[in-house]
Amino acid sequence: MAEDGDGDGDPFVRQLAWLVDRAGGKEALVRASGNRVGLRTLDTWSRGGYPRTSVSGAVRDLDAWALAQDFGYPDAAGAPRLVSSCGTARVVPPPVVAGGQPTGVPTVHRARRWWALAAAQVAVVAGTVAVTLAVVDGGTGAPAAAGASAAPTVAVPGLLPSQGDGEPRPQTVGADGVNTFADPRGLTVGGGAVPAGTVVDVRCRIAAAPMPSAGLDGWWYLVDSGPWAGLWAAADGFVGGRSPGDDGGYPTDLDVPVCTAAFTWSPGR
User: Fold this and answer.
1) How many H-runs (helices) and E-runs (strands) does the chain carry?
2) Cα–Cα distance between 211 and 137 in angstroms, integer?
3) Minimal CA–CA distance to 204: which of 161, 172, 240?
4) Which of 8, 59, 152, 183 is the most buried (most CB within 10 A)?
5) Do the domain assignments include residue 266?
6) Which residues span the domain enclosing 24?
7) b/e per residue 94-111 (b: at least 16 CB within 10 A)
């Protein structure tokens, strides 16, 4: 992943830079958009660290807000909309040789290679999930014992609530790392594992019952930073106030707000 975004060559970074300039700076954009995206997230995106494996909730929120303002977005920036410039469907500019001319390598080849790697990753993640995740007992609603047979991995229709209170909560990944998924209800493929000890921002939490749940209490966090932004990770994979390496799993941080369908903002945040 690029550490520094190329404003001319990267459509997402170019579009974001236009929005920031139009608002009068990153902090001004945060305020004007009603905290639909945080300042640290804008900094990360501006350096090229925007979501590459999915279109995150923050990207969708900022895109919808910008469209509603009727101030020239997205055409004025000369780049596609934010939701079309990230995730797996993003348009990747062709590489340029020394003479300044594109090499002519079709971007579809990159997409094919990505899907081939993703298919291999699914097989690895599926094996890991069977060991690390428990199944919710359909009759009682309580998590079943570890080692129970995993429910079928299926896509579940309907959008998940994805709004917090506008203030991301930093969370530290536990000693075993934690896998990420596009939808915790069906364990659809996500962006791979977050390494142990990594600190990420999370936006809010959701209970994934009655599909395979997350260990101790069934809560999942919506990650809102780094390459995993917009993906879900089991809350018991994060430290939650304990030291990495403690036995017995980690408690969910109840300061993380429960996800809602509509954005709610508290004064002072």
Assistant:
1) 5, 6
2) 9
3) 161
4) 59
5) no
6) 11-89
7) eeeeeeeeeeeeeeeeee
- Confirm if 237 and 180 have CB atoms less than 8 A apart: no
pLDDT at residue number 20? 94
Task: Give the rounded distance of the alpha carbon of 72 from its chain centre.
Answer: 27
pLDDT for 237: 83
Number of domains comprising the chain: 2
Please name which of 76, 71, 77, 68 lies closest in space to residue 15, comparing C-alpha atoms: 77
Query: Within a domain: residue 96?
Result: no
* 155 and 232, same domain (yes or no): yes
Rounded to whole angstroms, the maximal C-alpha distance in the chain is: 67
Report yes or no: 190 and 181 within 8 Å, Cβ to Cβ.
yes
Give the whole-angstrom CA distance, residue 86 versus residue 229.
11
Secondary structure letter of residue 66 according to DSSP: H
Q: Are residues 62 and 157 in the same domain?
A: no
64 lies in some domain:
yes
36 Cβ contact list (under 8 Å, min separation 6): 58, 61, 62, 65, 166, 263
pLDDT class of 192 with cuts at 50, 70, 90: confident
Q: Sorting pLDDT into bands at 50, 70 and 90, what band is 153?
A: very low
Picking from 193, 185, 173, the residue whose alpha carbon sits closest to that of residue 214 is 185
Q: Which residues contact 152 (CB under 8 A, 6 or more apart)?
A: none
Measure the CA–CA gap between 154 and 266, rounded to whole angstroms.
Answer: 36
What integer best gives the mean pLDDT of the chain? 70
Element (H, E) at 191: strand 188-194
Domain assignment present for residue 95? The answer is no
pLDDT digits (tens, 9 = 90+) for 37-76: 888 889 888 888 888 877 888 888 898 899 888 889 999 9
